[in-house]
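Hey all, quick one. A colleague (J.T.) asked me to put the FE2/S2 (inorganic) cluster job into the tracker so the inputs and the structure tokens live in one place instead of scattered across chat threads. No bug as far as I know, just bookkeeping. Sequence used:
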Amino acid sequence: MAQTQTPTINQIDPAVKKIIDEILVDNRDKPGATMVILNEVQSKVGYISAPLQSYIADELKIPVSKIHGVVSFYSFFTTTPRGKHTVKFCMGTACYVGGVEQLLDKANQALGIKAGETTPDGLITIEICRCVGACSQAPVIVVDENVQGRVKPNKMPQILRSLQEEEK
Ligand code: FES
């Protein structure tokens, strides 16, 4: 009797499944295969959603809870696609004391999204991160790969606007 496909496989875009299958073939026998595979999927697909986690767990014959544990522990992994630009807010001690929360509040208000979310147009994701090693310049944000220190709350809308205007 023909086996019916599980719903999780049906939720995966065939192009995404092809990328994941290639990653599995290349890496499944390597030491630490789970981490290697998840890193590759994050880099090449851009996210590891719940259906992707189930598919990878089935393929590796490990519990999905193990995959989920890794994906939720490391901030590098995301379960939804990141926006074109990422703005990270350092929540290390110096930045926290230096008022990074006010910067995050400003970004929340300006964009209408919370940390971990992406604007509906797919342009900007905001995230929190750990110390990026620029504590003397607290409070620090990282716009894409660019570290910006001593950011004032009233500058936040302008920083975000410049990302939006780049696209026009
Ligand atoms: S605490 Fe933010 S850069 Fe170190």
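Adding what we noticed when we looked at it: The mean pLDDT is 91. Residues 90, 92-95, 131-135, 138, 140 surround FE2/S2 (inorganic) cluster (CB under 6 Å).
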